[in-house]
Amino acid sequence: MRLPDLSGIQLPREPARLVRRSLRHVAGTLLGLVLGPLLLLTALLMLVRWRGPFRRVRGWELSRLRRAYRLQLDDQDGDSDGDDDRAGGGAFLGGRRALLHGALAGLLGYVMMDLLLLVAAVVLGSFTQSFYGSPVTLEFDLWVISRPAPSVLLIFGTSSLVAAALYAEFAVWLQALLLRRWTDVVRTDALESRISRLLTTRRGVVLAIDDERRRIERDLHDGVQQNIVSLSVTLARARRATDPARSSQLLEQAHAQSQALIDEVRQVAWRIYPTALDEHGLASALDGVAETSPVPVHVDVRLEGEVPQAVESAAYFVAREAVTNVVKHAAASHVRITVVTLAESDRRMLRLSVEDDGIGGANPEGGGLQGLARRVAALDGSVSVDSPAGGPTIISAEIPCD
Length: 402
Hints:
Blueprint: H1 14-45, H2 52-67, E1 71-73, H3 83-88, H4 96-132, E2 136-139, E3 144-147, H5 149-179, E4 185-187, H6 188-240, H7 244-272, H8 275-279, H9 282-292, E5 297-302, H10 309-330, E6 335-344, E7 347-356, H11 367-377, E8 382-386, E9 393-400
Parallel strand pairs: 5-6
Antiparallel strand pairs: 1-4, 2-3, 6-7, 7-9, 8-9
Helix pairs in contact: 1-2, 1-4, 1-5, 4-5, 6-7, 6-11, 9-10, 10-11
């Protein structure tokens, strides 16, 4: 069976997607100015047993929530006005709930209309006066401001549009917050953002793997391969030597080189993935980092419950790369590694902190730190760097454990 080719599937570019989302939210909030009062009026008509208009308007309102706000609602929760309500959906939005929801939608829509009128007045007025070359005058009781029309158009027009988009986002959040009191609500546009992030982190994982492969190749070429060549040359000289004492001396030298080569191969393998991480856990692997570091390292590990192997591996590599950077660049006299598990809302997080007393100035855009950020992002975590000039430097990582 052949798998479908998904390589051509692409999400819209993030800026364009955000613009379309903002336009939907603005239009949806403005439409609430119409549907909100209608929902209030038809809900009151139910007092005289006239339910048809209310059901129709409620259907329009549910359509507005789904299409403009991308709210996925559980229509089976809450009370009902009848069996046909349960079949048609929206049973949670009835009676007094419809009055409250309609009042909120109407109020938010009114404020949006007022805001859009302000945007239109500023943009169109400034644009028109730009052709005449006359300034825009803003008069208050205490002072009068006069500025060129193009600057007013650029500054106030842009800020007004941003304010409209932010207010629309607030309106969606507030209505979703109210609806969650009565039913389950999922924002599908948030799922779209989640998919976009997963695609980005997937690409980051590929880059991180490529970086790791290049590092392994560099370690093998610059270290192991050169020592193997040197060992081969020593053995060849011992083979050609006619003096038994000289031959024995070269063989002793080759034996010492072979032991050093074995140690170096072990070091390369340890840098790729330490066996202590699987056999004894994260605390033991970090103790190994502290033992091999020329800078004193204090390790404090406090883990509660079981931590997935992938999370331990990511935390280990973050700590090891951070210590390596300290040794190379920080001129520090002490490093502290702290690993704890914390319960945050409905998730359990592993929090790693590597702090040194060096000179600071670490570059978050550096290849090593970016590689760590990509590795942690693949597990839905994040890495932050706080390194002011003069120090101290704190590299933190948070990784979900669930």
